[in-house]
Amino acid sequence: MTNDHPQQPHRTGTEPPSLTGSPFDSDTFTSATFVTVGRGPYLALASVWLLTRVGMVLLLLRDSLGIGGVGREVDLYRYWYSQFAQGTFPPGDATWQYPPGAGLVIMSPGLLPWLTYFQAFVVLTLLADAAVTAALARADSARLTHGAWVWVCGLPLLLHLPLARYDVQTTALAVLALLALNARSTASHRLGGALAGIGAMVKVWPVLTLIGTPRGRTSREAWTAAAVAALALLATLALFFSEPLGFLRQQGSRGIQIESLGGTALGLAHATGVWPGKVDFRYGAFEYVGPYVSTLGHLALLLTVVALGWLLLWRVRAHRWTAATPFDAALTAILLFTTTSRVISPQYMIWLLGLAAVCLTSRTTVMRPVALLLLPAAALSSLAYPVLYDQVVAGTPQGLTVMVLRNGLLLAATLLAARRLWTSTVTGPPEETA
Questions:
Q1: In the chain, how many domains are there?
Q2: Cα 116 from chain centroid?
Q3: Domain end: 247, 279, 311, which one?
Q4: Which residue in 30, 161, 194, 426 is deepest, having the highest Cβ count within 10 Å?
Q5: Span 198-211, pLDDT tens digits
Q6: For residue range 237-262, what is the model confidence (pLDDT) as tens digits?
């Protein structure tokens, strides 16, 4: 991959470090925190990755933090695997709410028949994690940037959850798509588009990685490749499996999950006696049921539509483009769709950490403060689930405090990302960029 970043001038020992509004903008932070001489940073990165991932695996094997049972999701995947073995997507299963491409990830542990399904799933998740780490580290071969470190150190903040969900694999598709789109060749643009299209068939959101592709040939190449890849994958799955679009019947019935922003509002209203509803287990998650829940769900959908409209308006109005703009736009888009969602599961933080890490591979990104907000949000997410999940479900002051802080950080990150994306690309005179 070509390096579009200009060479930094040589610094002498007497020059003061540059001062910025964010520690991630500081040359001192870069050189003092992460050694960038020879192979040192790569060895350090690999060592930290290995140590943290061993810790995550040990936590998963014990699986006793908080309410425990984080690994039970993999048992559900194994059940779905048995359905695919019969040539069908899970028929009439309210918990199957994923696009048909997710079936490939669910079936992938079959590639390692000498392991149990659980073992194979964890191994493949770690391989996807390692691929993301390697791609981020390679994104700036001249000087190791913070992106790989944000991913390597940020993912363990979610404890062992990432190893028991297939969101790491989905994030890998999005990360590789964005990095490929940042290259100059037509083949790379098509590859990035194809990966985004496949990712969209796995969990929808990776298609938003294309929102910031530069206008003209790059966008045409990427979007065409995405459409072709998605349609080809859908046709292939429809040829070999029945009910590939059955998931659409389940999505419309979703309510307000307790971990969403709307759920936090209902939890606070219930705690103060303003709202008489309750928590119920529906569609594989704890949701609020009662008066005004349907209205709040429709409001969330309306806000998602508004978010899409804002992104399209930004796309039309933007006239300043840098190498980091596609990365910054992708992170902003996912933040907008996450915070307006009726469901904010803890694994959504995996997506946000991955995209924030991609942003930080570029020195021209404007998302450094946003990445800083996402790190404590990830830590609070692991407090919410699994550590204090019983408190969150019960709506105790402790549980509500965690959710208010986590969702407050997500909302702040979303608004900050939107503002910085707009001001960096729309406000001011047009600017020629490489």
A1: 2
A2: 27
A3: 247
A4: 161
A5: 999 999 999 999 99
A6: 989 888 777 666 655 556 799 999 99
